[in-house]
Amino acid sequence: MKIKHYLQLSLLSAAIASSFAQAEIKTNYLANVRPLIKFNELTRTEKVILAQQSQLLLRDLYVNRYQKNEFYGTNPNFSGHVDPAVKVQEVVNKIDSLSTSDLHKNLSQIFVSQRDLHLNYNFPLPHAAFISFLPFNFARTASASNQNEVRIGNIYAVFFDVFFPDQRKPQVGDLVLEYDGVPIQQAVNNAVINGNGANLYAGFSRALQYMTFSSQAASLPPAKDKISLKLKSARTGEEYSITIPWMSQYDDADLAPALVKNAANTNTANINALAMSNEPIQERYNQFLARNLNQDSAAFTRQATAEPSIKWSIVIRGDKKLGYISIGSFVPSAVTDNGALAIIANLLRNQLASTDALVIDVRNNGGGSIVYADKLPQMFMPGNATTNSARLLNTSLNFKFLNQDIFKQYWPNWVQLITDAQKTNNRYSKTGVFTTPQDANTMGQMYYKPVGVLANARSYSATDLFTCAMQDNGAATIFGEDRQTGAGGANVLEHGFFNAFAPEVFTALPGGVSMRVSWRQSIRSGYNNGSMIEDQGCTANVDVPRSLSDLSNGDQTQFDKIADALLAKPLNKSFHRFVSPVGNILSLPASTRSFSLEVANTEHVKVYVNNVLLKSHYVGIYGNPRAVSLSLPVKAAGEQYQIAFVGTDAGHTPLWNTKRMVNVTN
Questions:
Q1: In the listed set 58, 79, 114, which residue is the last one of a domain according to the structure?
Q2: What mean pLDDT do residues 572-589 have?
Q3: CA nearest neighbour of 470 among 542, 534, 388, 353
Q4: How many whole angstroms separate alpha carbon 363 and alpha carbon 537?
Q5: Rounded Cα–Cα distance for residues 251 and 18 (Å)
Q6: Could you give the CA distance from residue 216 to residue 126 in angstroms, rounded to a whole number?
Q7: Of 545, 567, 589, which one is at a domain's C-terminal end?
Q8: Whether 445 and 477 share a structural domain
């Protein structure tokens, strides 16, 4: 029996070999690998460095510090929120009484208590190599009376078959009544702090995640080796109990001593690429699901693109067609940000052009590039898109750090903002943008039918920014699987970045530890101008919580509600179309002085060349579309320029627009 069991373990390890690492992913009981989940000993000097560098980040750079104190209040113990600057000073004061393990635990808990997934104290290897998980996950559903329920969301069946074949296997949809002997609602409340969710909905969702999945890069392993559950069968109503061991996955290569090294980042080649807003726990969780959840349970087939994080589909509903785009991350893995935007633009102008409405699914998207998120809304609106802005904490350290020659060259706007702030007693600088209005509107509108964005409480960071921007620009209806998005409103930077540019202040972190800090705080624009995203997130226009049926039918019930709402919206009667097929680039002879376009229900058509108005044509076309002749600029052969046609009403409010690059030929 033992030989057979070890053979099964070996086969399982081979079956789930990681596609993104050379070494094999190993799976075992947490109880068996717990001795390997450890910290290498630090010297006193190294402990002091970690405590003092944590203090610099939390006291002088952490832009959400005061917001968190005001939003949650403070608590003198670790059962709730604490003022991080006060608490980290206590750690500095008692450094000589702390073991290496105690130091890591104390500092980590201070970071975690802020409920800010942009603020991270990352444990070193070998501790960080491990993931603890149960062979299923939990999902929040809404009951008939709209009460929160916790149910079995997915089951990783292979683990039951190999590790505990004699254990009763729960079924998807079974109701969770108790977790380790505690009523489920109380168990969720107990897990909220460690789950790190930033508001009521994110708190609930992240707590559910934490109760079945824990990355030891960011948190300690579960205290117990097993967990007991009391469940109620969704099919029969029978109540039953099971006891399940915690499992562990790890890449054996991560346990090599050579990998335990300082985490300083010396790559300073491209500081303009640091407009990032993402959270790594969701990314690790998504990777875990991709490895271990073999089936795609979506209600309809999704087509792949050259970028794995972007998928699409067309769903037929009667005589209507609903377009669908899934964006799983704002960190493209196979293309650049602009490449990802080009893929989406191509879908909108070609495969999805004839659909009657569009759903953009950003559930469980942990964020990424702010610029990518900033540039996307323009494709869905007739006028110019506005972007979210950000501000810095007004501290002397921020002022000194930014007033270096390299930042004066590459980030002059941020240098000016902190310089101006230092002349005041204001807590924050004024706001600046990552993406200029011109850059946020270079591509123009590409979809002209009703648009919906489907988000949830794990739509975080740059995904918060995108969802809020679509709402603030009036570009889409926001459908919420949870009523609020994850509420991560900041640009995040690694401690290694600060060390690379100011090593005399930011000492390289010893022992393989790394840290991140929320550095620039996001502020909304448009309809919600001045509101913060952190903690509040984006509130849905329409609630579409998952129901029990969604767990088994691939969210078909939820999708039907969204489809019905979008397809019922009236279409814009104002539109344009090209007389003959047009690609992304127009090739026009230098002698051509006009261009024909069919328009309807449009008062004026304005022609812009490189964002400068060339001519405004009064057309006054209502009812059936008619062709109009629009001015082109005088350009020599070989030149290239961007042309934009913008249809407006009588008050010059944009109704539609389209932009193309023009190559002038002989």
A1: 114
A2: 92
A3: 388
A4: 14
A5: 9
A6: 9
A7: 567
A8: yes
Cβ–Cβ under 8 Å, residues 241 and 228: yes
Specify the 3-state DSSP secondary structure of 520.
strand
- List the Cα angle 533/536/540 in 5-degree steps: 100
The pLDDT tens digits for 169-222 are 999 999 999 999 999 999 999 999 899 999 999 999 999 999 999 999 999 999
238 and 193 assigned to the same domain: yes
Q: Classify residue 264: in a domain, yes or no.
A: no
DSSP three-state, residue 145:
coil
Q: Are 340 and 310 in contact (CB under 8 A)?
A: yes
3-state secondary structure of 266: coil
The total number of structural domains in the chain stands at: 4
Neighbouring C-beta atoms of residue 546, cutoff 10 Å: 20
Q: Which residues pair with 435 in a beta bridge?
A: none
Question: By C-alpha distance, which of 161, 197, 166 is closest to 72?
Answer: 197
Same domain, 491 and 444: yes
Distance (Å) of CA 487 to CA 19, 385, 531: 31, 21, 12
- Residue pLDDT, tens place only, 455-482: 999 999 999 999 999 999 999 999 999 9
What number of other Cβ atoms are within 10 A of residue 447's Cβ?
A: 24
Select from 217, 213, 218, 188 the least CA-distant residue to 203. 188
Strand order across the beta sheet in which 477-480 lies: 303-304, 310-317, 320-327, 357-361, 451-455, 477-480, 542-543
What average pLDDT does this structure show over 628-646? Answer: 96
- The closest of 169, 164, 181, 167 to 233, measured between CA atoms, is 169
- Token reading at 444: 């123009």
Q: Distance between CA 196 and CA 393 in Å, rounded?
A: 22
The answer to whether residues 28 and 56 belong to one domain is no
Predicted local confidence at residue 272, as pLDDT: 55
CA gyration radius, the chain:
27
Question: Residue 405 in 3-state DSSP?
Answer: helix
Confidence of residue 276 (pLDDT cuts 50, 70, 90): confident
User: Which residue do the tokens 């209507």 mark?
Assistant: 320
How distant is the alpha carbon of residue 209 from its chain centre?
16
Asked whether residue 190 is domain-assigned, the answer is: yes
> In terms of domains, do 148 and 195 share one?
yes
Q: Give the separation between CA 362 and CA 576, rounded to whole angstroms.
A: 29
Residues 357 and 476 grouped into a single domain: yes
DSSP 61: I
Q: Is 225 helix (H, G, I), strand (E, B) or coil?
A: coil
Which domain does 158 fall in, by range? Answer: 2-36+129-255
The full 3-state SS of 170-212, as one line of letters, equals CCCCCEEEEECCEEHHHHHHHHHHHHCCCCHHHHHHHHHHHCC
pTM score of the predicted model:
0.93
Quick one: pLDDT at residue 271? Answer: 61
CB 562 within 8 A of CB 477: no
Q: In this structure, are residues 116 and 101 in contact, taking their beta carbons and an 8 Å threshold?
A: no
What is the rounded CA–CA span in Å between residue 516 and residue 121? 7
Same domain assignment for residues 383 and 507: yes
Residue with tokens 């006891």: 243
CA distance 261 to 514: 10
Are residues 308 and 453 part of one domain? yes
pLDDT-derived band at 295 (thresholds 50, 70, 90) equals low
